[in-house]
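Why does this matter for the project? Reviewers at the last site visit asked to see concrete outputs rather than summary tables. In response, this paragraph embeds two records directly. Each consists of the residue sequence and, immediately after it, the corresponding structure tokens. Nothing has been edited or filtered.
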Amino acid sequence: MPTAQHHPATRLCAQLLSATVLAAVASAQDWPNWRGPNHDGSSAVEGLPTDFDTATKVRWSTELPGPGASTPVVVGERIFLSSTDPETRTLIALCLDRNTGAVLWRRDASSGYQPEGAGSPTVLHDRSNYASPSACVDESRVFFFFGNGDLVAYDQAAGDPLWRKNIQKEHGDFSFQWTFSASPTLWEGRLFLPVLQRNEPVNGRGAEDAASFLLALDPESGALIYKHERPSDARTESLESYATAIPHVGSEGRKELLIVGGDVITGHDPASGRELWRWGTWNEGHREIWWRLVPSVVVGDGLALVCAPKRAPVYAVHLGGEGELGEKGLAWKSGGRPNRVTSDVPTPLYYQGAFFVLSDVRNALSRLKPSTGEIEWSLELPGRSPWRSSPTGADGKLWCMNHAGLVIVVDAESGKIVHKAEMGEEDDDHTRSSLVAAHGALFVRTNSTLFCIAAD
């Protein structure tokens, strides 16, 4: 059992409306899902320390059962996060006390379902594991999803299981090259999960003519509300997406769920799953067949920012359209040589009226003006380990972590590094959880430990 250790304009109106609706079930201090209260990586939390390490400004630290890329979800007095347990080869759902780090409850979330050829119960590939998706919550329940398809709902307070299902068992084995890792999205009284996969088996898994689809489930029972197929002309691995569905409320109150992958971005009616519009492609003629997509969409200033894979540009797409948007749907795309504004894995951040793109292939963090895509500053990132965690914005700063557990704090205005902290253990690698700012504290998940960093 883990233990806690204690230590000393129109677009503006649309943005405010969206933030109000999306944060309805959580206070401004909570972090209720993977990308936070506004689904854009930002937080209104203030008073975070910038002089911390593993021994300084640590309110508490809790040893975790095993590694996982899921980001902590912080709601009220509780923290929820998933993990693997390498010793028992199980998938774990955890609830911690936010004030002390003590484990309030721990549940074995594994169903035991394994598609043929999937490998061990917790590891599908050596770069990832099944505890990569982050949890989400409503007023009384918490929902955990794992890369093997297990979706489990628990009572927040007691940890009592409410319902469970396996998405692969019900809808067919996943057809992905890597470990599926989209996080569930709770919105409009429904639990959404996009499954954008290739249409053929891969590495002995999946099915011929497998379809990509969007699921909407009843949070109370797990019952299927609808399954909407989402077609694409992409080919092979380019059909695969590991991105999370992002909610958006437009300037006139139109609600749409944004889904990216298969060489296009689409907006969907959350009530029915019906496709309202699509824009693409960044893959002309669908020639590139190995362009799986990892970053989710981020919305800001009336635009949806989409990251094409590998070293391709990022694209800003106008929201609120109908049908095939075509050329008019594109506001701008990043350019220049070398293209520093690109992201293969991290999801960008929208914070204080700017987009921030972390390039894991260029080792650069850039601030962009939303209206034009102009680079306001670009920072070369330190260290040799990859930077694949998504950046977080809070307290006027940007918070980023690399595979080795090196955390940097960057001033959002100037782009200057104001602090570095080695939070990982010696020889740590593949640390990929994003940092969380909630209730006046910073939560840092490494391969083995969850740290709560606070000024007091």
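We now turn to the second protein, recorded in exactly the same manner.
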Amino acid sequence: MTWFVGVGMYVVIWWVAIFAVLPWGVKPSAADDPGHAAGAPANPRLLQKAAITSVVAGVIWLIVYWAVNADLIDFRS
């Protein structure tokens, strides 16, 4: 696996993981908040979710990297 393919694979895994992590702990804001959308979360904690996503994507990427280098997954044939 080249570094370009590795980085591309990490980016794809990261984006899939962020959509899995975003709903964690979401609570709607109070109904009387003027200027906020009704479905907007009260405290989205986006930096924490981005950090969790980066760790999860890193672990998944390491597993995929190991599987490719161990020839369990073969992209060449």
